[in-house]
Amino acid sequence: MANYDIIGNIVVVKFKRSDSKYKKNKWARDFLREHKNVTSVLEKTERFKGRLRVQKTRFLAGANTKESLYRENGCYFRFNVDTCYFSPRLASERQDIAKKVKKGEDVLVLFGGVAPFAIVIAKNSKAAMVTSIELSKACSRYAVENVKRNKLDGKVEIVQGDVRRKLPPMKKKFDRIIMARPNLKDSFLDVTFSRIKNKGIIHYYGFCYESELENMKSMIITEAKEVKRKVKLINVKKAGDIGTRRYRYRIDILILR
C-alpha cells in the first residue's frame, strides 16, 4: 500500500519503486473518486532535503497544481508543497505548544516556514506577540499571506532571514522560543540562549535514534554552560518518527538564569 499525506486539497503519495506507471495512475484516479475534498494527486519523487527543506513531486491526476489550501486547528494556510516544508503530522504538536503559552507571553518561532506554529499559537492562546523567523523567501511570502488570511496582523510578525544573522542584533528577549529545526547538525542553541528570558522556556526539536537521546540532552546542557546559562530539562517527548527507530524529539528547556 502506498504511503501518503493529505494536505488540504492535495494528496502527496510515495509509491514503492517497483510500482508501475499504470498502477500509480490507477491509484490516483481511485483516490480522487473516493476523497471528494482532494482535487490533486502528486507523487513524491524526492524527499525533503537541505536547509530550505524543499522536495520534488510529480503531477499524477486531478487539478495540475502544487499549491495547497490547508486547514488546521481553526487556521488556514496556503503554500506550495514543493518549495515549502509543511508537515500535517505536526498538527497536534502545534496545538500542544499553543496550550502551554501563557497570557501576555512574547513568543519566538525559529525556522518558522509558512508560519504554522506562529499562527496556531497566536490564534489559540493569549500570547502578546508571536515572531517567526524563516530563511526561505518563498515560505516567508506565504507566511505573510497566511497571517493576513487568519486576521492576525499586529499579533504575528514575519522575519525573513538567517537565524544566525537575525537573532544576535535583536534587543528583545522572549518568554518562550520554539526551535522547529530542520534535520541539521547545527543546534543553533548558542544564539538562541541569548534571546530567552530567565525562567523562559525553549522547545528544542532534535532528531536522533532512541539510543542517542542521552547524548542530545548532554549536548544541550553543555552548550548552555558555554554561554553561561543554567538550564533544566523539564520534559522530553517523541514528536514523530522520521525513520526506523529514529525520532523527532521535543526537549523542553527551562532557563534558570
Structural class computed from helices and strand pairing:
alpha/beta
Q: Roughly how many Å is the radius of gyration?
A: 19 Å
Mean pLDDT: 96
Order of helices and strands: EEHEEEEHEHEHEHEHEHEE
| Name of the CATH architecture of the largest domain | 3-Layer(aba) Sandwich
Q: What portion of residues belong to β-strands?
A: 35-45%
Q: How is the CATH topology of the largest domain named?
A: Rossmann fold
In quaternary terms, these chains amount to single chain
Note the gap between the termini: 51 Å
Extended strand count: 13
Widest beta sheet: strand line-up: 9-8-7-10-11-13-12
CATH top level label of the largest domain: Alpha Beta
**Poorly predicted regions:** none
**Can you tell me the number of structural domains?**
2
The major beta sheet can be summarized as: 7 strands, mixed
CATH H-tier superfamily of the largest domain? Vaccinia Virus protein VP39
Describe the structure.
By secondary structure, the chain is an alpha/beta fold. The protein has two domains: 63 residues, 2-Layer Sandwich (GMP Synthetase, Chain A, domain 3), CATH 3.30.300.110; 167 residues, Vaccinia Virus protein VP39 (Rossmann fold). Helices cover 26% and strands 39% of the residues. A seven-stranded mixed β-sheet has the order 9-8-7-10-11-13-12, sandwiched between helices. The chain has a four-stranded mixed β-sheet with strand order 1-2-3-4. Strand 5 and strand 6 form a beta hairpin. Helix 2 crosses helix 3. The termini are far apart. The mean pLDDT is 96.
